[in-house]
Specification:
globular; three-stranded antiparallel β-sheet; D-Maltodextrin-Binding Protein, domain 2; five-stranded mixed β-sheet; 21 helices; alpha/beta; 447 residues; single chain
Length: 447
């Protein structure tokens, strides 16, 4: 749960942008500052210097080492300033104070809008970032650009897939679901065969919910300038709530929080039989559920419409240059190296899941065998998922705050008789009120 001081901080982020720009979009073509240029970057590399990077992603160690080897005059200092919200709070404090900000910061896609709307990160278009419009898959690329401004480069991606315990499904003679209706039927059959088995766990997760609504075709958020539209009344949101409500009503979801010790235990012993999650998950199976090696496999995400191939992103991060960075040109050079070309490929070899089309489409990547998944070439499924991520998705410019109140609203459906659809409506109201309080014009799309 976010503290009151952090909530005030997030509010200040949004308010700063609204006050500064009035009705003009943050980062719009009318006000875009495209920063430096490619010549500045080249000169900075020749001169050298120090680049401080705030990040928690482990494969950046390889990228930093290789970058220093290629450019001996450059020193890359990796700092783990905390993961997710902890780093974002520290980062925004440093930007607001005008000192202490790193040269590069890892920022998850759902959180990037918070920094872009407040102009807390640099527009990288002028440094050459705009030339990568065909380099990355659509989901991550759309997440880092706003009109003609590009506020980061994609570091990885999280196209979704269905991870399932083949041993459990085979034992009970249950087919792997290809649609969400079949998924509900499989949930019933598994739990009937063994009441200790649940199709998956869920105690209420904002990221998982929005990803599945995304896959179903729902588009609850739109931002134009300082006008924000919020609504969970389209057919995509309804498809999600109708299906998930059945799982809730019939107690077919394990009441276990993801990433807890109990969760890892459930994945290991088969009592949690599937996960619908991003393609970055295999490393977590290998390290956290080693005893179940060979039991699990990967399949395409179940579809809302039989025969479709729609997918969505779940997770993933970008690399941005915060305002106040001391070495902006060197910072961009490192970002460019770590997210494209040889740097990106080296990180993929270390276990990162690529956002770059070239790496996703490479024969070596697609034909890589996963011993954990019984030798399955799972990357073929992940790459196909990445190619079929639904277009037109966007997050709120204050999604970090919205996600922080998810359990206060939608979470009620998991612990009471509140319908999931009502929980989403309450989430909409809370998100809309917050936006209005910060000075946004909010089109609530109320039912």
């Amino acid at each position: 749960m976010r503290t009151n001081s952090t909530r005030r901080l997030l509010g200040a982020v949004a308010t700063a942008c609204v006050m500064a720009l009035g009705a003009t979009a943050c980062g719009s073509s009318d006000s875009a500052d495209d920063g430096g240029n490619a010549k500045d970057v080249k000169s900075a590399l020749e001169k050298g210097g120090k680049v401080t990077v705030w990040a928690w992603e482990p494969t950046l160690k390889k990228a930093a080492a290789d970058f220093e080897k290629k450019y001996p005059k450059v020193d890359v200092e990796l700092v783990n300033a905390g993961t997710g919200d902890k780093q974002y709070t520290a980062l925004q404090n440093a930007v607001a104070a005008g000192s202490g900000a790193p040269d590069v910061a890892q920022v998850e896609y759902y959180a990037l809008g918070q920094f872009a709307i407040a102009k807390s990160v640099e527009n990288l278009a002028g440094y050459g970032a705009a030339s990568y419009d065909k380099t990355f898959t659509n989901g991550p690329w759309n997440a880092v650009k706003y009109d003609k401004s590009i506020y980061a480069l994609p570091m990885d991606s999280g196209p979704m897939a269905l991870f399932y315990n083949k041993k459990v499904f085979d034992r009970h003679g249950i087919e792997i679901p290809t649609t969400w209706d079949e998924y509900v039927e499989a949930a019933r059959a598994l739990h009937k065969a063994d009441p200790k088995i649940f199709i998956t766990n869920d105690t209420g997760d904002a990221g998982a919910t929005t990803s599945l609504i995304w896959q179903a075709g729902g588009r609850p958020y739109k931002t134009e300038g300082t006008t924000v539209s919020i609504g969970f009344e389209d057919s995509g949101a309804k498809a999600y709530t109708d299906t998930w409500q059945k799982l809730l009503d019939e107690d077919l979801l394990a009441p276990v929080s993801s990433w807890s010790d109990e969760w890892y235990k459930g994945l290991a012993d088969g009592s949690i039989a599937t996960l619908s999650i991003g393609a970055w998950m295999p490393a977590n199976f290998t390290s956290g559920v080693a005893s179940a090696s060979g039991d699990w496999r990967v399949a395409p995400l179940p579809q809302w419409t039989k025969g479709a191939k729609a997918s969505a992103e779940n997770g993933g991060s970008s690399l941005a240059v915060p305002k106040g960075a001391k070495n902006k040109e060197l910072a961009y050079a490192f970002i460019e190296y770590a997210t494209t070309g040889a740097g990106a490929s080296a990180r993929v070899a270390e276990g990162a899941f690529p956002a770059t089309k070239a790496d996703l489409e490479s024969k070596a990547f697609q034909e890589a065998a996963f011993p954990y998944f019984g030798g399955q070439q799972a990357n073929k499924i992940f790459a196909d998922s990445a190619a079929n991520v639904g277009a037109g998705w966007s997050y709120l410019p204050y999604q970090v705050y919205a996600n922080s109140v998810f359990n206060d609203t939608v979470g009620k459906a998991y612990v009471s008789s509140t319908p999931l659809s009502k929980g989403l409506e309450n989430w909409r109201k809370a998100s809309a009120k917050y936006g209005a309080d910060q000075g946004f014009t909010v089109d609530e799309q109320s039912p």
